[in-house]
Amino acid sequence: MTASLRRFAPLLVALMVCTGVAVADEAEPGAVNPLRLSYIEGGVSFWRYGADDWVDARVNTPLAAGDALYVAADSNLELQLADRAFVRVDDNTEVALVDQQPDFLQLKLTAGRVSLDLRSLPVAGYTIELDTPNAVFTIDHAGYYRVDIDNAVRFVSRRGGHATVTPAGGEALGVAPSEEVVVQGGAPAVAQSYVAPELDAWDRWNYERSEDLLDAYSSRYLPGGVAGAYDLDHYGSWREVPDYGPVWIPYGVAADWTPYSSGHWIWDPYYGWTWVDDAPWGWAPFHYGRWVYVGGYWAWAPGRVVVVRPVYAPALVAFFSVSYGGIGWVALGWGEPCLPWWGPPHFIGRPWWGGWWGPHVVNNVVVREHADIDVRNIRYRNARFDHAVHAIPSDHFGRGNVHDARLRVSRERDLTPLRGEIPVKPGPHSLVAGPVSAHRPPERMLTRPVVATRAPVSPPLPWRREAGTRPPEPAVPARITIQKPSRAFGELPRPAAGAQTGPERMQPPQPPRFSERRYETAPRVAPPAIEKRLPITQPPPPRTTVVAPPEPRAVPEIHRGAPPAAPLGQREASRAPPAAPGKLPGRAANRVYRGGGQGSSNQGSSNAGPGGQR
Q1: E strand or H helix at 174, and its extent?
Q2: What are phi and psi of 342, to 5 degrees?
Q3: Please, what is the average pLDDT of the chain?
Q4: Which bin fits 564, alpha (ψ -120 to 50), beta or left (φ > 0)?
Q5: 579: DSSP letter
Q6: Nearest to residue 293, comparing CAs of 356, 383, 412, 390?
Q7: Strands 153-158, 245-250: pairing kind
Q8: Is the whole model's pTM more than 0.85, yes or no?
Q9: Does the residue 450 lie in any domain?
């Protein structure tokens, strides 16, 4: 079975158990949630197999096998594997994604510094493999891990993390918590064990950033595993509205803004046409849930909170063919099915509710879970609203920002729904979304061989057979030595106490006691003493405190995109985001949506949402 089919095998299983044309519901397991490029600082370059050159990396790009990233001097980046798992890369570092499966991630590191802060793994039995020049490191436990690569390879495990190191030409050895392993090159490579050194500035930054990202109140409205909750905290407000429950409304956008109006369509080797939004919060609202128009605002509705692994989609839109030459699309409304344009043949073009955990709705009516659906007669609710349908010429699709070549759609009869594959052929220009980068990794990084336990798989190029020519040489050469780990599993030899060649840790302080009040930001002020001249039965005179009225909070400027968030690591006095201009619909959300409202049942037929005209 090829790598492409392995990624979609759970979808094929779901199709085989269905009796009608509708595919499996939201409980289907196993779809791959790609790594999200969630944070960029400084010069970061991106390369995808088949592209012409390295380009500037863009936030919210989903990574695929064969992708590579280079972090220039005084820069860093972050990849988000799940809501509680992060990969961070320091400057002068090249990292490549070799393979990703529902339970496996393989990264290639040739030089520099990388940390993995894994507060939890995406699923039980998940394994991460790090391929380096001198050894392979296998991680299958939550913890904090760090790799530094120069002439030698240094690997540190903290916070209860367990790992396995397989030196080049050697046998697999265990790595204990709070242990540093140094692997020197050779035939075979030699691994030595030391006590993990003190935390430095890079480690402390990783710890603090993860703590801030995990402390997101938007997480209460999302299923576990959905990335990007912290960004929702800073760029919008949660509201409780009738029929839909909690919805998230972005602020700082233009008055005529609509979903999927500013961003890029790029070609993913496995998911086909994929949306990359320009907004810093543009991950979860464009790969999960649905969009609704309520009270004059566009709002993102994630649906019910369920305890299942989230199912990723490259975009949640309905595509149209425009009569005067173009491709159009509109965001799916409350409970509406997606007609996939990606995946195996039996999956394409069939109603699918992946990434959605609310009622199943077709033409504003709730349908049964496995009902037969005529996909030729689906009418999409959001297409009725002004500016909601976006269209661009077919020759511009996948060639830059969609806002630069928009077609005006004034009549709904000019649109013909597309069911299945999008009639636009990708090319090398469709693989990336940014301009050519000024930062290219040194040749020594690209050509340095590494050790691995699995061979890399070249991503498919859809135009390879049609062009009849060889694909471009990859910028990440597959110079990987495959080494199967031995069945024998040993322990690293540890030096005797006091005999370590490196610096020993200082004796740690005793953990603070609560009575010591070490966590208070200000010292406690003793209450004023009662004057002795007052009788014991007489209370002290009342104290008058003059409180100055708070300064009015500035309304964020209305512009395309969103205002910058506060720096991570600097907690605000209040967790509430700035209020959006105007009166928002409903009331402030303060609870988890458990299915109340008009569309809470998947059985029977009823109105799926509030009526309304443009």
Answers
A1: strand 172-175
A2: -130, 170
A3: 79
A4: beta
A5: P
A6: 383
A7: unpaired
A8: no
A9: no
Assess if residue 491 is contained within a domain: no
What the block records as the tokens of 175 is 């790595």
Burial classification of residue 10, based on how many CB atoms lie within 10 Å of its CB (0-12 exposed, 13-18 middle, 19 or more buried): middle
Where residue 362 falls (left for φ over 0; alpha for ψ -120 to 50; beta otherwise) is: beta
Q: What is the pLDDT of residues 51-72, one digit of tens each?
A: 989 999 999 999 999 999 999 9
One-letter amino acid for residue 305 of the chain: V
Query: Do 162 and 143 touch, CB atoms closer than 8 A?
Result: yes
Q: Give 414-426 pLDDT, tens digit per residue.
A: 889 998 889 999 9
Phi, psi of 376, deg, nearest 5 = -75, -15
Residue found under tokens 């939890």: 120
Residue 329 lies in a domain: yes
Residue with tokens 């995946």: 343
Beta bridge partners of 45: 56, 70
Identify the CA nearest to 255 among candidates 22, 557, 463, 494.
Answer: 557
Tens digit of each residue's pLDDT (9 = 90 or more) over 386-407: 889 999 999 999 998 998 888 8
Dihedral, CA of residue 85, residue 253, residue 403 and residue 226, to nearest 10: 20
Residue 330 in domain: yes
For residue 349, the 8-state DSSP code is T
Q: Is the separation of the CB atoms in 54 and 475 below 8 Å?
A: yes
List the strands of the sheet with 587-588, edge to edge: 290-294, 297-301, 245-250, 236-241, 587-588
CB 424 within 8 A of CB 398: yes
Distance, C-alpha 513 to centroid of its chain: 37
In the numeric block, which tokens belong to residue 600? 């809470």
Report DSSP letters for 178-210, one per residue: TEEEEEE-SSS-EEEEEE-----HHHHHHHHHH
CB-facing half-sphere around the CA of 387: CA atoms within 13 A: 14
State CA 250 to chain mean position distance.
18
Q: Quick one: pLDDT at residue 614?
A: 34
**Domains in the chain, number:** 1
Q: ∠ CA(177), CA(178), CA(184), 5° rounding?
A: 100
Q: Which residues of 475-496 are buried (b: 16+ CB within 10 A; e: fewer)?
A: bbeeebeebebeeeeeeeeeee
Task: For residue 361, give the amino acid letter.
Answer: V
Query: In the numeric block, which tokens belong to residue 421?
Result: 């594959």
Under a CB-based contact definition with an 8 Å cutoff, are residues 442 and 112 in contact?
no
Closest CA to 286 of 266, 260, 264, 255: 260
Lowest-confidence range among 211-225, 410-424, 564-578?
564-578
For 350, the domain range is: 225-430
